[in-house]
Amino acid sequence: MKRFLIVLTALILGYLAYDTARYYLGWYIDLQPDAPVTAFMSTDAQHLYMDRGAGPEEFTVKGVNLGVGVPGEWATDYAISKETYLRWFGQMQEMGANTVRVYITLHDDFYNAFYEYNTAREEAGEEPLWLIHGVWVNDYIQNSHRDAYDKDFLETFVKDGRTLVDVLHGNKKISLGRGTGSGFYNKDGGVGGCDRHLHQPQIPRSAALSGNVPLRDGGRLRL
């Protein structure tokens, strides 16, 4: 009995260590460190392109910007259900949209619904709904004296970007209290691209203070 309890305790501790390392800390072992990085989306100065397997083709975003609130609920409650998301996704494509954009990490209901909806579409031989996902940047920081190359700003942005990648590829658990959605993100749902809307004053200020990007009417900001 004693040996059984020791083995059981060791297994539980091992699982908790693995769970924390993978889903909370983002640790993993790269078994193919030299594998090339590929993407099915590309761009030039004027257009977006998507490679569906036969080479890049011009892609026009016909999108819906999706918020987090519904009537009668606080936006930070993330009260939209999986069933509601599934209904909305269908309605988006019925009206001609091909892309949905969200500006912050939502509860796992959104990603579970997105995965289920697109899996069904692909099995039926139909075009999936594409996703553009934002990385949230605190409004106070954007309106402060900091520019986009400030150490606190940039390190937080990169960290949140890595968290989002884990969310989108089903390798993250997020607890309540971070200001974003929360849950167990275990679906690799795919994404068309990531974005972050910087406030208009942030772009020329960052360019002027850093010297890294020439001022071109806010047309370029390299992060």
Span between termini: 58 Å
Uncertain regions: pLDDT < 50 for 5+ in a row? 214-223
Total strand count, please? 9
The oligomeric status of these chains comes to: single chain
Helical content stands at 25-40%
| Element string (H = helix, E = strand) | HEEEEHEHEHHEEEH
Helix segment tally: 6
As a percent range, the share of strand residues is 5-15%
Largest sheet: 4 strands, parallel
- Arithmetic mean of pLDDT: 78
Order of strands side by side in the largest beta sheet? 4-5-6-9
Helix/strand-derived category reads alpha/beta
Report Rg. Answer: 20 Å
Please tell me what the overall shape is: globular
Layout of helices and strands, plus pairs?
Blueprint: H1 2-24, E1 41-43, E2 48-51, E3 56-59, E4 63-66, H2 82-94, E5 99-102, H3 108-123, E6 130-134, H4 139-142, H5 151-168, E7 172-174, E8 183-185, E9 193-195, H6 202-210
Parallel strand pairs: 4-5, 5-6, 6-9
Antiparallel strand pairs: 1-2, 2-3, 7-8
Helix pairs in contact: 2-3
Short description:
This protein is of the alpha/beta class and 223 residues long. The chain contains 6 helices and 9 strands.
What can you see in these coordinates?
Helix 2 (82-94) packs across helix 3 (108-123). 37% of the residues lie in helices and 15% in strands. The chain has 223 residues and is of the alpha/beta class. The longest helix is centred in the first third of the chain and has 23 residues, at 2-24. The strands form 3 sheets. It has a 4-stranded parallel beta sheet, covered by helices on one side. A 3-stranded antiparallel beta sheet has the order 1-2-3, with no helix packed on it. It has helices spanning 2-24, 82-94, 108-123, 139-142, 151-168, 202-210, and strands at residues 41-43, 48-51, 56-59, 63-66, 99-102, 130-134, 172-174, 183-185, 193-195.
